[in-house]
TrEMBL record:
<protein>
    <recommendedName>
        <fullName>CDP-glycerol:poly(Glycerophosphate) glycerophosphotransferase</fullName>
    </recommendedName>
</protein>
<dbReference type="GO" id="GO:0016020">
    <property type="term" value="C:membrane"/>
</dbReference>
<dbReference type="InterPro" id="IPR007554">
    <property type="entry name" value="Glycerophosphate_synth"/>
</dbReference>
<dbReference type="GO" id="GO:0047355">
    <property type="term" value="F:CDP-glycerol glycerophosphotransferase activity"/>
</dbReference>
<dbReference type="InterPro" id="IPR043148">
    <property type="entry name" value="TagF_C"/>
</dbReference>
<dbReference type="Pfam" id="PF04464">
    <property type="entry name" value="Glyphos_transf"/>
</dbReference>
Length: 361
């Protein structure tokens, strides 16, 4: 019997594809999916077979002898992390990263929480872990690609998508470039927006500009809403799409000509969709947020991973931001070869991880 423990949305999305493969026809394992934290609500909206258990002791009493334990790496540790020391020497434990560098400090830094094996996306991910955890060995890594990326291997009809988006947003998405500017930060985001608008106004290209703000902005920093509205009034560098709420972020990413952000995961999604994309982290407000988000890990990840891998263009000031935007709109950013090299989309990441896990039992 396999235990699989999930907690947060990202962690759940990372582990669940592997659970499905292990339960499927190729393996037919008995996998007990354990939810805690927000995963309880997330899984309640699916047809997945799961249990809600809220402490490591509760899980170990119910399932004292698993063959192996899989866990997401989530905020504040959670049940999966707390099971690692309880199962030490009893069965193998496998942790899943869903983003480079996350949760290594502070939640999982105590050596007692070291999993026996670690599912990572690539060598960069593994190197960051070994920098943060010097006692960890390379043979403990399962380099499979993040299982959640398999969804991007599914083909879609671009013409149909553009027609649908045009109808919902009242634009002609098939015949004019779309600049999607997605903001991961929310405190101080008006300054980032102002920078982008200055650049687009200077370029003065015939484009659609779609700003997309962090969903927590209104709740966490409501004052930013009016500040951003005032900044948007200055835009005259194309056609502003004032509201894009009729479309999902993933739909807009698929439709966009270029994606611009700070260090948010929208740039990762853009990379997986083979889109030209630009990371602009040079403003002080963004630097502060990055420091808060990654802390000590910055020593091994000074730039977002997709920038370090050459899959996103790095803007270092307003001039380079304008040049990258112009190059992207005119098809000259040239990121695709690196994107294909570091993020191969064969739809087999979950299967690769499952095969290695099966070999450990």
């Amino acid at each position: 019997m396999i235990l699989a423990v999930v907690k947060d949305p990202g962690g759940t999305n990372g582990v669940l594809p592997v659970v499905k493969v292990l339960r499927g026809e190729s393996f037919k394992f008995d996998v007990r999916l354990i939810a805690n934290g927000s995963a309880v609500k997330l899984l309640s909206d699916t047809t997945e077979n799961y249990e809600a258990l809220h402490s490591a002791d509760e899980v170990s009493m119910r399932y004292p002898n698993p063959s192996i334990m899989l866990t997401s790496m989530c905020s504040d540790g959670g049940v999966g992390r707390d099971l690692v020391p309880l199962l030490r020497g009893t069965c193998p434990t496998v942790a899943f990263h869903d983003y480079w560098g996350t949760r290594l400090f502070p939640e999982w830094h105590d050596p007692k929480y070291r999993p026996d094996f670690f599912v990572v996306n690539d060598e960069l991910d593994a190197n960051i872990v070994m920098g943060a955890w010097p006692d960890y060995k390379r043979e403990q890594f399962i380099v499979s690609g993040y299982p959640m990326f398999d969804q991007y291997a599914v083909k879609y009809d671009q013409t149909e998508l553009l027609t649908s988006i045009s109808s919902r947003l009242g634009i002609d998405a098939a015949n004019k470039p779309i600049v999607l500017s997605a903001y991961g930060i929310y405190k101080g985001v008006n300054k980032f927006l102002s920078e982008v608008i200055d650049v687009l106004n200077d370029l003065n290209l015939d484009i659609y500009f779609i700003p997309r703000f962090h969903p927590r902005m209104k709740l966490n920093v409501p004052e930013e809403v009016e500040l951003c509205n005032q900044v948007l009034k200055r835009f005259n560098g194309g056609t502003l799409v004032e509201s894009s709420s009729a479309c999902t972020t993933q739909e807009l990413l698929r439709a966009s000509t270029v994606v611009l952000s700070d260090y948010s995961t929208t740039l990762l999604e853009a990379t997986l969709l083979r889109k030209p994309n630009i990371s602009a982290c040079y403003l002080e407000e963004i630097k502060v947020n990055y420091q808060v988000e990654f802390g000590t890990v910055q020593k091994w990840m000074p730039d977002p991973p997709f920038v370090m891998l050459g899959c996103s263009a790095k803007a270092v000031d307003k001039i380079s931001l304008g040049q990258h935007l112009s190059d992207a709109i005119h098809g000259k950013l040239n990121l695709k070869s690196a994107q294909e090299k570091y993020f191969a989309l064969d739809g087999q990441n979950a299967k690769r991880a499952a095969e290695k896990i099966a070999s450990l039992i």
